[in-house]
């Protein structure tokens, strides 16, 4: 077992851990030789817990643990209008008895009714969050911090989580996940060649890299496909957050720049903008496995992984693990991307 002692960090259990690791038998049958003999597995972080599930619950275990320890009565966070992180912060706050306020920017150029009202945005209301919608160029973190100050003046105590929950404390969730999945792989006799994740606010990759380094593994075992920032910026953020997280776990330890493996070639024209490869990947997973990728993160990352496997990046027999990060409600904000039934 990979041991990683995070017991000194307060944690609020939100997931039924560990999440399962499963082979992609149907997809492998369908793609046949195109997989070049690579064995594909998924880690089901999309099943997690409640609120619609997804990777942000792992971060929220530590974020809400810290907020509770500090006596917070309100959780405040930020994101785009269809933020999965905002939706899960609302759900986890409801369950923990905290008030929740969300500052959401219209940063994605989509004006469809479904994008503005359905999907995650509908669930934010259902979970009882107070939602503040801001224009594209607004600084939502500054607005959130100003609101926290205003609440403080009223004698309340608000805790502000950054975008994606990717503070060093939030990233501990994926450091813990690294230890969890290494233990599972060992028990299954799997020698993993790569662990693959989408990269938005960089915390999932950063946390995994920190967890791998802290347990004496090579952080290069984790790889991400950037879907939000351009590759160079995503890389810098991932390295910085990985080291800030590792510093919490093992003060003074460092990950070198070559410890971060990141690919920016599958983001397409921008964050939240569909690509043909994303559509193909979402359909393929749905039609061969009955499993759901999402249009913003995991669909693009899985498309990138399939591209690289087809291009022969991994030798035959390699075991590659893709982390299913959730985001299913996002599908309902993108009906136009999938409405052509003939495809
Ligand atoms: C937020 C998110 C990611 C990316 O995680 P980061 O830690 O922000 O990089 C991936 N998939 C889904 C579904 C997400 O909501």
From TrEMBL:
It comes from the Bacteria. Its cofactor is pyridoxal 5'-phosphate. Keywords: Pyridoxal phosphate. The modification N6-(pyridoxal phosphate)lysine is found at residue 56. Residues 16-326 form the Tryptophan synthase beta chain-like PALP domain. The active site is at residue 83. GO terms for molecular function: D-cysteine desulfhydrase activity. It holds the Pfam family PALP. Belongs to the ACC deaminase/D-cysteine desulfhydrase family. This is D-cysteine desulfhydrase. It comes from Methylobacterium radiodurans.
């Amino acid at each position: 077992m990979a041991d990683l002692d995070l017991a000194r960090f307060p944690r609020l259990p939100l997931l039924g851990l560990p999440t399962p690791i499963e082979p992609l038998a149907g997809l492998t049958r369908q793609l046949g030789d195109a997989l070049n003999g690579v064995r594909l597995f998924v880690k089901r972080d999309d099943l997690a817990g409640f609120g619609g599930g997804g990777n942000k619950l792992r971060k929220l275990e530590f974020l809400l643990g810290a907020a509770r320890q500090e006596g917070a009565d309100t959780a405040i966070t930020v994101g785009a209008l269809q933020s999965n992180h905002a939706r899960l912060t609302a759900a986890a706050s409801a369950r923990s008895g905290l008030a929740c306020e969300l500052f959401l920017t219209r940063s994605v150029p989509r004006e469809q009714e479904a994008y503005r009202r359905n999907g995650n945005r509908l669930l934010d209301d259902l979970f009882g969050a107070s939602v503040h919608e801001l224009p594209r160029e607004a600084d939502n973190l500054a607005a959130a911090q100003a609101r926290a100050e205003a609440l403080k003046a009223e004698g309340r105590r608000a805790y502000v989580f950054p975008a994606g929950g990717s503070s060093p404390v939030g990233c501990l969730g994926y450091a813990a996940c690294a230890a969890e999945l290494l233990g599972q792989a060992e028990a299954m006799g799997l020698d993993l060649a790569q662990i693959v994740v989408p990269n938005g606010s960089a915390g999932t990759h950063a946390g995994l890299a920190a967890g791998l380094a802290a347990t004496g593994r090579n952080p290069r075992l984790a790889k991400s496909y950037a879907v939000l920032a351009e590759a160079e910026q995503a890389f810098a953020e991932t390295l910085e957050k990985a080291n800030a997280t590792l510093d919490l776990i093992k003060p003074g330890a460092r990950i070198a720049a070559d410890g971060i493996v990141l690919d920016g070639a599958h983001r397409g024209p921008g964050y939240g903008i569909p690509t043909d490869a994303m559509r193909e990947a979402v359909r393929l997973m749905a039609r061969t496995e009955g499993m759901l990728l999402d249009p913003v993160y995991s669909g693009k990352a899985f498309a990138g992984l399939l591209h690289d496997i087809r291009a022969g990046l991994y030798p035959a027999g390699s075991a590659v693990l893709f982390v299913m990060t959730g985001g299913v409600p996002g599908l309902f904000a993108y009906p136009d991307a999938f409405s052509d039934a003939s495809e």
